[in-house]
Each structure stands twice: as structure tokens, then as C-alpha cells.
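for ur thesis appendix - 15668_t:CDS:1. copy paste whatever u need, i formatted it the way the template wanted (i think)
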Amino acid sequence: IGVHGIWIEFVDDYNRRRTATYLPEVAEEQEEAVDSLLRKGGYNGRITDKIRSRVVLTRYQSAKYVITYEEYLEHI
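the 3d part is after this line
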């Protein structure tokens, strides 16, 4: 976290698949981030260890580049 973003996937109480992500610059302290992502993913119930156990968490890295539109067109 900080360098890494996190993406979660979970199944809610109504058996719906939900996902949410934080980019590296947004991710917080890990446990709080998971609870926050559950809310961001649309979970409105009480956050318990049971719902946390349904979370599949993926950590990823991203890079940020600043280029002109013309440079972008050269690379697509």
C-alpha cells in the first residue's frame, strides 16, 4: 500500500459479485482500506469477520505518465 493499489472482489449477502479498487496513491492502512472498499463496492450491511472472509484481495502496481495527446496517438 502506498506503492501498491488494492482491488477486492466479494459476494454480498444477496449472492451478487461486487468489486472495488484503490489506486496506490489512495490506498490507506490495509484493514481500514478493506472495510472502505467493501462500502465503495456497494456493501451496506454490518462489516463483520464473516464478510471480510469472503474478500479476495489483489495487490497491484501502477505507473503514472504525463504525455501530450500527440505522444499518446503515436503509441496506440
